[in-house]
Amino acid sequence: MAAVRRPERVADLETKYPNTFQAVRFDARDTGGAAALVQAAIDRFGQLDVLVNNAGRAVVGAVEEVGDAQLRELMDLHLFGPAALVRAALPAMRERGSGTIVQMSSQGGRQSFPGVSAYSASKFALEGWSESLAGEVAGFGIRVMLVEPSRFRTGFNEAEVLEFAEPSETYRDLLARVRADMAGADGRQEGDPVRAADIIVSVVHGDDVPLRLPLGSEAVERLTRAYRRDLEGVERWAETARSADFADVPPSSRPI
User: Which UniProt keywords apply (predicted)?
Assistant: First the structure.
């Protein structure tokens, strides 16, 4: 079942697979409609094996340029919408003792860049929420995978999808290259979405489902650098950090 804002855009799939595919009109920000959508999928196909939260878009602009409404909309789209769908899907998955939840995050969900603070904030939130979820549902046979792509040749960078905050004089020159890069990426992204989908399907059908799956060479390289940078930072400040503890309190053995 494909829950999309414009079902007409996937009409070819419904024609090609009339018995195994259904498109329904749905806005991922509609948290109130999540339960009915999940029930409709179960009614149509009998069970729910995999939930993929794939909706997403970006707002480009400096922190001072992106307003509350834009930031909240991305949080609705990337966190609250997926959270509602997951909550709606979990009872059926728990009852069957199996299921996989695929959360489409981004390389920007583990590191951020100037000009994409709102996008990364919402993806960082999805990552933290999903990591906690994974620990909570593993005992029920439910798996969670965060997919962290680099740039893939989808509609993400299309002019009517990508939003640019009104540039200010303060940040106009500083973010000029970022804006130009994002605006000029459509149709030139190095990632192949068909190959990416094949990889995701293959991993979901397998026994070894990672919590995080980077996709694309750029994602692998950038995330590797980010992890090494962060580890170096922890190691550099480790002694200073440890000195903040009470000297007579033993190390914690708490579950968190």
Answer: Oxidoreductase
